[in-house]
Amino acid sequence: MCMLSPDVIEALAGKGVRGDRYCLGKESGHFSQSKGARRQITLFENEVFATILRDHNLKLAPEECRMNIVTRGVPLTHLVGQRFRAGGAVLRGLKLNEPCARLNEVVRKRLIKALIHRCGLFAEILVSGEIRPGDPITPLDVQRLRS
Q1: What pLDDT, on the 0 to 100 scale, is given for residue 76?
Q2: pTM of the entire structure?
Q3: Would you list the DSSP string of 71-120?
Q4: What is the model's pLDDT at position 147?
Q5: Long-range contacts: 102-109, Cβ < 8 Å, 24+?
Q6: I want to staple 16 with a disulfide (CB 3.0 to 4.6 A). Which of 23, 28, 79, 140 is the partner?
Q7: Alpha-carbon distance 30 to 70, whole Å?
Q8: Measured between alpha carbons, how far is 120 from 45 in angstroms, rounded to an integer?
Q9: Which element (helix H / strand E) includes 137?
């Protein structure tokens, strides 16, 4: 298995990331049978790599986290239930991801404890567009504060 870091990904509304097994609907692979918006695109915070190295002495590389996008400076917990722009695409944060035993198997590291509440965000693709490394992530929903 080879994880890639492409110069651009194409996010397809209602489908997923072009070329991703969930977008292709392939039945091979773990969780491939899971359908729905939750599998369209996944994000992971770059800062988590340093945190798990510091707190758990575990090194995880970006290509090992098995997510479509690695972010920097974006607290993904704030995007749950929110619409946001990533490059030319518009996404909606659906649910925080929690680590599973499959990740341990694939990367051959004991990561579950280190990644609890830090394993990224599942998002739905609302508007198709290209996303490139360095593209900003901009919230679109303004939350109203109660006085």
Answers
A1: 93
A2: 0.81
A3: ESS--GGGGBT-EEEETTEEEEEEEE----HHHHHHHTS--HHHHTT-S-
A4: 47
A5: 102/30, 102/31, 103/66, 106/1, 106/64, 106/66, 107/60, 107/64, 109/58, 109/60, 109/64
A6: 23
A7: 21
A8: 7
A9: strand 137-139
The span from the CA of 10 to the CA of 131, in Å, is 6
Block residue for tokens 């990740």:
103
Find where tokens 């920097």 sit: 72
Residue 60's identity, in one-letter code, is: L
The token duo for 74 is 């974006």
Give per-residue pLDDT as tens, 113-144. Answer: 777 777 789 999 999 999 999 999 999 976 55
pLDDT band at 104 (very low <50, low <70, confident <90, very high): low
Say if strands 83-86 and 89-96 run parallel, antiparallel, or are unpaired: antiparallel
* Average pLDDT for 70-94: 94
With contact defined as beta carbons under 8 Å apart, do 97 and 139 qualify? no
- pLDDT the model gives residue 138: 93
Distance linking the first and last C-alpha atoms of the chain = 52
* Tokens standing for residue 137: 């992530």
**Which residues lie across from 95 on neighbouring strands?**
122
Q: Region 18-28: what's the mean pLDDT?
A: 68
